[in-house]
Specification:
By secondary structure, this protein is mainly α. It has a domain of 33 residues. The protein is built from three helices and no strands. The mean pLDDT is 91.
């Protein structure tokens, strides 16, 4: 783990201190948890964006098999 210094406003510091007292967690732990949540959120947004970009990618193609028919065949084979 790497030590990092941050600057908080007086209001942020008060809220962080209060949250720390309420939860029994260290302030540094709460900050790391907030950073992790932002990283996860960014990854989720990037994934959603990539999925949206691929939407309809194969629409209108005539060279693809009938996936519905293939799936029904696979379902019957079970």
């Amino acid at each position: 783990m790497t030590r990092t210094q941050i600057y908080l406003s007086d209001e942020e510091r008060r809220h962080l201190k209060r949250l720390s007292a309420q939860t029994g967690r260290k302030q540094s732990e709460l900050i790391r948890q907030a950073v992790d949540a932002m990283i996860f959120s960014g990854r989720r947004e990037a994934r959603a964006s990539a999925l949206e970009a691929g939407r309809g990618l194969w629409a209108g193609r005539e060279d693809l098999p009938d996936f519905g028919r293939l799936r029904r065949g696979w379902d019957r084979a079970r």
